[in-house]
Design goal:
three-stranded mixed beta sheet, 191 residues, 28% strand, Rossmann fold
């Protein structure tokens, strides 16, 4: 049985935020499925605050093909979901199908991970109220205005929701998310 996990992207998705979980999922025996507004190629970026800078510097990163459009996703076919960072969440968060998918994963308590600006999607979907999350500090307002609690830590676990601040935190929060995915996979296999 194939165990698929969604990775949500758009143009200007952060490269490391996307590729690290992509390859970790493969290592864990999962099929990562790149989901985006349309089934096409997307341009990723690399983000870092350079020494002496007060804003994020952006470079062009790799490109990646989306496997499926949001409109075609049946969320019950997937073990979990990952919300990648970068600027993409700001532009895709109003997509009605993405909101529907996001709400399904929260409402059904499936394994969810979010990093950096990825928080903007569950916040827009109305699913962060009362939840503790890590995110890049400049998205603290987006989280809190929607009722969530900002936690400035490398890994925040709030039930089925695992989050990190930036790609520097991948080594801290991806492992706990993978553990949740394994538990969900085992439940599905048991019937």
């Amino acid at each position: 049985m194939e165990h698929k996990v969604l990775i949500v992207i758009g143009d200007a998705t952060e490269t490391v935020d996307t590729m690290y979980p992509y390859f970790r999922l493969i290592e864990g025996g999962y099929t990562p499925v790149i989901a985006a507004p349309e089934k096409r190629e997307y341009q990723m970026v690399m983000h870092q605050v350079k020494p002496g800078w007060t804003i994020t510097k952006e470079w062009e990163g790799y490109s990646m093909d989306a496997d499926i459009a949001f409109a075609d996703i049946k969320p019950e076919e997937y073990v979990g979901i990952f919300f990648s960072g970068g600027r993409a969440p700001e532009y895709i968060r109003d997509d009605e199908d993405l909101i529907r998918i996001t709400q399904w994963f929260f409402d059904n308590e499936k394994p969810i991970a979010s990093v950096c600006h990825g928080v903007e999607i569950p916040a827009r979907a109305g699913r962060v109220k009362g939840r503790r999350m890590a995110t890049v500090p400049k998205c603290q307002f987006d989280l809190e205005v929607c009722g969530g609690t900002f936690v400035n830590e490398a890994c925040v676990i709030d039930g089925n929701l695992i989050s990190g601040r930036t790609f520097w935190d991948h080594g801290h929060y991806i492992g706990p998310w993978m553990k949740l995915l394994d538990e969900e996979r085992d439940k599905r296999a048991a019937g």
